[in-house]
Specification:
Length: 338
């Protein structure tokens, strides 16, 4: 995985300046190099992004407000309760402090409850953080309760990518499709995000993506797809209805519930955690003959509202001045890559 020169060691010191966290990682273009995104000679360096998962967000923010009050907008003056409410009720579960100076770097850090993170990884409740963790990140601290959920999240991203790929595809096609899953329906795409973001992530993260997903090319998911390796890092999969059903039935609960809403005359949403119901929903989805469109719509139905909610919540989290500055930087980066 390509990590910016001299950055990795410094990033591991971030936890010294914050209250105790259960899980932490760094991500984004300031951590994982994206080709040609920034001029190496420029003093305009990318922001460093962090995610912290904590057992009790209310207690964590109470401590952080004492330790780092200047990181918060005026919302912080109201105390930890409105901070947590904004993240979990108005937003998608993550409180973001942006444009914060830390040891000579501009950083952004998000704080999420450990249980909310687990649920997102396991069920794709919002894909807001789970989507980031489908791509290479620099792990700073690993939470003992998350490894199985993290594995399931990667399996699900690999499965969804196969379902959206044609019969024959390259390894780079696979990486790009995986990286794009969590952006399906994202309200920021095409406006405040780099139009080539997915391509850049897949290209700049090829080494990390290989470590995360290449072993899955011969695992249980690949067996369901009857994946066959071909010369030149290309692959062929079985597009039969049976194969598609087997793959769809293993998708996260959040996707299956939305597929059930689209294909079932009765309310099956509450029963999609039953393997037999999941199988039935998968069969109904494939029998429509439009399962790819339904899958995209199901993911978009998760991502669109969560990305919209987080965008609105961000106005309160950052405050007017910081929000305007952050949006300007995002739009400028998007414009630079057109």
């Amino acid at each position: 995985m390509s990590v910016g020169p001299g950055v990795a060691k410094k990033l591991r010191g971030v936890l010294e300046d914050f209250p105790h966290v259960q899980h932490a990682f760094a991500y984004g273009s300031g951590v994982i190099v994206q080709p040609d995104l920034y001029d190496k000679s420029s003093t305009n360096k990318p922001m460093l992004d962090f995610i912290f998962a904590v057992d009790n967000p209310h207690e964590w923010h109470a401590q952080n407000l004492q330790q780092n009050r200047h990181h918060y907008s005026i919302l912080g003056s109201l105390g930890p309760t409105p901070v947590v409410w904004t993240a979990e009720r108005l937003g998608a579960g993550t409180y973001l402090n942006t444009a914060v100076w830390w040891r000579g770097h501009m950083i952004k850090y998000g704080v999420i409850g450990a249980q909310l993170l687990y649920d997102d990884l396991q069920h794709w409740d919002s894909l807001y953080i789970a989507g980031r963790m489908q791509k290479p990140v620099l792990m700073l601290k690993d939470y003992a309760k998350l490894p199985i959920a993290r594995k399931n999240n990667l399996d699900a991203a690999f499965t969804m990518a196969l379902l959206l790929l044609p019969e024959q595809f390259s390894l780079q096609d696979l990486y790009a499709k995986i990286c794009g899953v969590s952006y399906i329906g994202d309200v920021r795409m095409g406006f405040a995000e780099d139009s080539r973001k997915i391509e850049r992530i897949a290209s700049g993260s090829a080494e990390g993506l290989a470590l995360m997903y290449n072993k899955r090319l011969q695992g249980p998911v690949a067996d369901k797809a009857k994946l066959v390796s071909r010369p030149g890092d290309t692959f062929r999969q079985d597009l039969s209805d049976r194969s598609r059903v087997d793959l769809i039935s293993t998708l996260p609960l959040g996707v299956l519930q939305r597929l059930a809403s689209a294909t079932q005359p009765f309310d099956f949403r509450s029963r999609c955690d039953d393997p037999e119901v999941a199988q039935h929903v998968a069969e109904s989805t494939v029998n429509t003959g439009t399962h790819e469109q339904l899958l995209r719509a199901a993911v978009a139905a998760i991502v669109r509202p969560s990305s919209r909610r987080q965008a609105w919540a961000g106005l309160f989290m950052a405050g007017g001045k910081r929000s305007a500055s952050y949006l300007f930087q995002k739009v400028r980066k998007a414009y630079r890559t057109h």
